[in-house]
Design goal:
seven-stranded mixed beta sheet, single chain, alpha/beta, Metallo-beta-lactamase, Chain A
Length: 349
């Protein structure tokens, strides 16, 4: 999912391919754009590793007949088939990455692997009501009562509430080396976008499948999940630095066009958030004391617009992004945070 602000975009001369088509991005590695039923994004990239010991799918999309048809067509035209799929790696449990994998796991008993800390949001899906129940309390804490009540009344989307969703075959912790489809895939833990987000490095082709952790055009949202971590921005920046320090690899994002190197984009995203941290610090110094007040004083999206000009679902994510930056400033020792039992207030130190 996209965030409310954007870092500078990557540029590329590679033309995009449309949903319903596919391409080789390396020997025995396919990129398959899959359709999505949401207006915010048109497609998600599934990657298929083709090997004599079976096919591995990475992020096989949002469950639907169109998704399964696109996967079937691509694999068949590439000389393989869905029957050869032995393992599925999923970067995180958002619907556009996980639900087709979960359906195949249930129907075919295909091995499904996911980051361990995704279990918090999977459990919360079964246990909590509403679309974003934990974010309602965070909005109250930000002094954004109207936004909190609006979100509290928001029902679960039809595209989600009737979709099977549950635990994988096995959870991964990161740092595993998996022998799959004739290659070794290194698992890296990259929390931030979600608590259990993973990226995967194919050592043979030197491709890094970055999920929603690093994207070429979108500045990924943080803690956009059912059971969020309040310090997700701290985790996200640490995870970005992991990729900056990683040996150069080609970036295979979940949305958008592959890029020659991943570490440059990771550094751009770090620079973007550090600039936002300086901006939030200046606003707190000037007297903006709540998450709502901070967000209301900031500009958002590439259009550089005010909070009130954003769509309602972007407004609450923007407020919580402002809170995330203020909380990180508190953790770094630049501001203090106090509460009256309902609303959190930030003060300069």
């Amino acid at each position: 999912m996209n965030g409310s602000t954007r870092a500078p975009e990557c540029t590329t001369t590679t033309p995009p391919i449309e949903v319903g088509r596919w391409e080789f991005v390396a020997d025995n590695v396919l990129r398959i754009p899959l359709p999505l039923p949401i207006p915010e994004l048109k497609s998600v990239n599934c990657y298929a590793l083709l090997g004599t010991d079976g096919v591995t799918l990475i992020d096989p999309g949002w469950v639907s007949e169109d998704t399964e048809k696109s996967l079937n067509t691509a694999l068949t035209e590439a000389g393989s088939s869905m029957d050869e799929v032995s393992t599925m790696l999923v970067t995180h449990s958002h619907w556009d990455h996980y639900t087709q994998a979960y359906a195949l796991h249930r129907e075919r008993r295909t091995t499904l692997l996911l980051g361990r800390n995704e279990q918090h949001s999977i459990r919360a899906w079964a246990e909590l009501d509403g679309a974003f129940p934990n974010q309602v309390g965070l909005l109250d804490g930000a002094g954004a009562d109207e936004h909190a009540r609006r979100l509290e009344a928001t029902p679960v989307a039809d595209t989600e509430k009737h979709t099977a969703y549950g635990h994988p075959t096995q959870y991964l912790d990161g740092d595993e080396n998996l022998r799959l489809s004739g290659t070794v895939v290194k698992v890296l833990s990259t929390p931030g976008h979600t608590r259990g987000h993973l990226v995967f490095h194919d050592k043979t082709s030197n491709l890094l499948f970055s999920g929603d952790h690093v994207l070429p055009r979108i500045t990924p949202s943080i803690a956009y999940e059912r059971s969020p971590d309040r310090m997700a921005l701290r985790s996200y920046l640490t995870s970005l630095r992991l990729l900056v320090d990683h040996a150069p690899a080609e970036m295979m994002p979940a949305h958008g066009i592959p890029q020659p190197v991943v570490h440059e984009r990771a550094q751009e995203l770090i620079d973007h958030h550090e600039a936002r941290l300086r901006e939030v610090h200046e606003l707190i110094d000037a007297g903006a004391s709540t998450g709502l007040a901070i967000a209301s004083a900031m500009k958002w999206t590439r259009r550089n617009i005010g909070l009130a000009e954003l769509a309602p679902n972007q407004q609450w994510t923007a407020i919580l992004e402002a809170v995330a930056h203020a909380d990180l400033l508190e953790w770094r020792g630049y501001v203090s945070r106090t509460t009256d039992g309902l609303t959190d207030s930030y003060r300069p130190l």
